[in-house]
Design brief:
- By secondary structure, the protein is α+β, with helices and mostly antiparallel strands.
- It has 2 domains: 2-96, Immunoglobulins (Immunoglobulin-like); 106-150.
- Helices cover 21% and strands 33% of the residues.
- Strands 1-2-3-7-6 form a 5-stranded antiparallel beta sheet, with no helix packed on it. Strands 4, 5, 8, 9 and 10 form a 5-stranded antiparallel beta sheet that branches.
- It is elongated.
Length: 156
């Protein structure tokens, strides 16, 4: 997803406690540039946990992966090894971080967790049955259709 010109994320939303891959092809990215590029970043309104990582140069631009913590915003800018900055004209790049969705989390009231294991066991058995049925279809239907299948009749 392109969020601003020349900055791409591998996801549509920034979600807390998840990895984020950033690609940069901005002003500091040049085909013949041999120096290093760094992302300078922090979180929240006051730039907590400030850090700086070297980005890897690829055909698609400079890339880096960062783990997002629980925070309101992700703030960053870029600099190269000559200390030239791309900081969005002095206002930095700031994007909101969304809370992780808990809609699909099942809360089990069973203290021992037995209902959860029963549910898993049941789904496992059904998946085995489905795989066996698909295997039989793949193996026997072509034989039946071509007439090469001979049914074995037990002699009495």
């Amino acid at each position: 997803m392109e969020l601003t010109k020349n900055i791409f994320f591998n996801t549509d939303k920034l979600i807390e406690n998840s990895p984020l891959k950033i690609s940069y092809t901005g002003d500091l990215f040049k085909e013949d540039y041999q120096g290093k590029l760094f992302i300078h970043y922090g979180f929240g309104l006051n730039w907590e946990n400030v850090n700086e990582l070297e980005m890897q140069k690829t055909e698609l631009g400079y890339q880096v992966e960062i783990d997002l913590p629980q925070s309101e915003t992700f703030n960053f800018c870029f600099r190269n090894s000559e200390n030239i900055w791309d900081n969005n004209n002095g206002v930095n790049y700031i994007f909101p971080i969304e809370k992780a969705s808990t809609d699909l989390i099942v809360i089990d009231n069973d203290e021992l967790g037995l209902s959860n294991t029963r549910r898993l066991r049941k789904s496992y058995l059904w998946s085995k049955k489905v795989r066996l049925a698909v295997y039989k279809l793949i193996k026997y239907v072509p034989k039946i259709l071509s007439g090469n299948y001979k049914r074995k009749i037990a002699e009495e």
